[in-house]
Amino acid sequence: MHSEKRDQNFDAIADKFEKNIYGTSKGRLRHELLHYHLSKSIDFSTLSTALDAGGGTGEMSRVLIQSGVSVTLSDISNETLTIAKQKCAESSALSVIHSDILGLPDCEYDLVICHAVLEWLNDPYVNVRKLISMTKIGGYFSLTFFNKDAQVLGNLLYGNFDYVKQGMKVKNQVRLSPNKPLQPKAVIDFLLAQPVSITSMAGIRCFHDYLKDPTMQQSHYEQLKEAEIAFGDKEPYMWLGKYFHILMRRDA
Description:
CATH superfamily: Vaccinia Virus protein VP39
Radius of gyration: 17 Å
Number of domains: 1
Family: Belongs to the class I-like SAM-binding methyltransferase superfamily. CmoM family.
Pfam families: Methyltransf_11
Shape: globular
Distance between the termini: 28 Å
CATH topology: Rossmann fold
Helix content: 25-40%
Binding site for S-adenosyl-L-methionine: 30, 54-55, 75, 115
Order of helices and strands: HHEHEHEEHEHHHEHHE
Structural class: alpha/beta
Largest sheet: 7 strands, mixed
Strand content: 15-25%
Keywords: Methyltransferase, S-adenosyl-L-methionine, Transferase, tRNA processing
């Protein structure tokens, strides 16, 4: 297995990861919005194979398998892969690979997914090139990453002025706090030089994290989701999402 020294491994906290991400409104909303944007552009019934790169506990893999897609799920954490197999009911349509992205075998897939992974990697752009090469010509590549611009905005709104001033660097990194958020326009500039065409873009959680009354994240969840869908792929709101989603097709 290929190894990168600084890539985040969630082995020690896999259960906490599952609970803190998918057991909350923020995790549920992120997953449901990504599912919405994918299904809006892609007819899953036309797909045979998919790669869920760094797919963790298999939340999106389960959706794809239920749609009749054979899924290869990779992750560097054995513990999250164990949870994923249970979540997908030990389906024969699921294959798991204990590896980082750069260590994956050179196969091509109808759909490649890399959601909320780049911000944990030592060299995200090298990994993106690898994933593009694993997307069939004419196939789709779905990329989502933690938005650095939104991170700055959120911290300023929370009054963390000193934290922003010092470059949002802390001595003791919170284990579920992404190490290396990216700026959407920088990622887009990089992708424009690759053999892909961007199909759609959207902000994920443009409003959820900024609500003045956090209890509304639960009490008004459906109204909030409706607003996220209505405005998340429109200017200027898309740039405010805590995560940024880019769906593209491989050209050559």
